[in-house]
Specification:
Helix 1 packs parallel to helix 9, helix 6 packs parallel to helix 7 and helix 6 crosses helix 12. The chain has 12 helices and 14 strands. It is globular, with a radius of gyration of 20 Å. Helix content is 35%, strand content 16%. A 6-stranded parallel β-sheet has the order 3-2-1-5-7-8, covered by helices on one side. It has a 6-stranded parallel β-sheet with strand order 11-10-9-12-13-14, sandwiched between helices. A two-stranded parallel sheet has the order 4-6.
């Protein structure tokens, strides 16, 4: 049996549907291909359940379209599953060669018009990962009975800084409204360094986050290592799998850490942890209860980001040390 999964982006969303794909692999033994945007191909290549990765362009569309379409149509699949649910993914599903094509329950943008079958009606009353399980229900397979763990990934070997505990920071998200102030992350690093001199903090992110990482290093130069832009996605996942805790905004590395079994403490503001929080057991979220939450806006409508600034470094550290099994002196 050959199955094609269509989930084009983004990092967190791709990891949200991975439990569904792993369940399919375990119950069918199928060969599974996955089509994704090129910038996320590296993360999908880390998935042990995936045999082949196809890319479909988001940028340079006209130049890459023919090549991508030829690659997409080389194989006649037994089943194509769209786990993305937007018009662009529905078009990819429509263009693929398959005996059966199924769209998700959460299809939007009119994409449902292109699916011969759809896994039920939309409902937004549960986590995004659980919404993807509707496809398993529809196809007659069991939902996964366990969380993801490092065995579900082909992880790269990486040298990990020594620290007791070893804590990762992911201080940057794509939405300005979701970013806890860098000054708060810096203050938190200083507090941790004073309370636990043997602790080591690694800051993770892309090349664009290097400046933010350096600002945090300044607060506790002996305790903080800035790894922004220095690790590949596979290396970042390997690093996170070795950490005792990740402290972060609502951002992609949270889902990477949760997927490899690392506990996450996530500062939430404009978004909903019940939809996009870390999936699995042992995680915590911190969120104020302001009347404007959750606004689900990329920028704060009030211009104050009060939902984020009101969460203090001290309360985040208290929660972190509780999760690590240590009291704060």
């Amino acid at each position: 049996m050959r199955i094609l999964v269509v989930k084009l982006s983004s990092l967190g969303d791709i990891l949200h549907v991975l439990p569904t794909v792993c369940a399919l692999k375990a119950q069918t033994g199928a060969s599974i291909d996955w089509v994704v945007h090129p910038e996320f191909a590296a993360i999908v290549r880390c998935f042990a359940a995936v045999d082949n990765v196809l890319t479909f362009p988001r940028r340079k569309f006209f130049g890459e379209f023919r090549r991508s379409l030829r690659e997409l149509r080389k194989v006649e699949y037994d089943l194509v599953i769209d786990l993305h649910g937007l018009m662009k993914s529905a078009i990819v599903t429509f263009l693929s060669r398959a005996k059966r094509k199924v769209g998700p329950s959460y299809a939007r943008e009119g994409s449902a018009l292109l699916y011969p079958e759809r896994a039920g009606r939309m409902h937004r009353d549960c986590h995004a990962a659980v919404q993807a399980f509707d496809t398993l229900d529809y196809l007659g397979y069991e939902r996964p009975q366990r969380d993801l763990n490092p065995s579900d990934f082909n992880l790269s070997a990486i040298e990990v800084p020594h620290g007791a505990p070893l804590i990762a920071f992911a201080p940057v998200s794509r939405w300005d409204s979701k970013n806890w102030p860098v000054s708060h992350f810096a203050a938190l690093a200083s507090l941790i360094a004073k309370a636990r001199p043997n602790a080591k903090i690694v800051v993770v992110g892309g090349k664009a986050d290097i400046i933010v990482g350096n600002q945090i290093v300044v607060a506790a130069p002996k305790s903080v290592v800035n790894l922004c832009g220095k690790t590949s996605i596979a290396e970042s996942m390997a690093l996170l799998s070795e950490c005792d805790l990740l402290i972060a905004n609502d951002t992609g590395p949270v889902h990477m850490a949760a997927a490899v079994g690392t506990r996450c403490l996530v500062v939430f503001g404009p978004t909903r942890p019940d939809w996009t929080g870390p999936f699995g057991n042992g995680h915590r979220t911190i969120m104020k209860s302001l009347p404007c939450q959750p606004c689900l806006r990329h920028t704060c409508p009030k211009g104050t980001k009060e939902c984020m600034t009101a969460i203090s470094p001290e309360e985040v550290m208290a929660q972190a040390f509780e999760m690590l099994g240590e009291g704060v002196e």
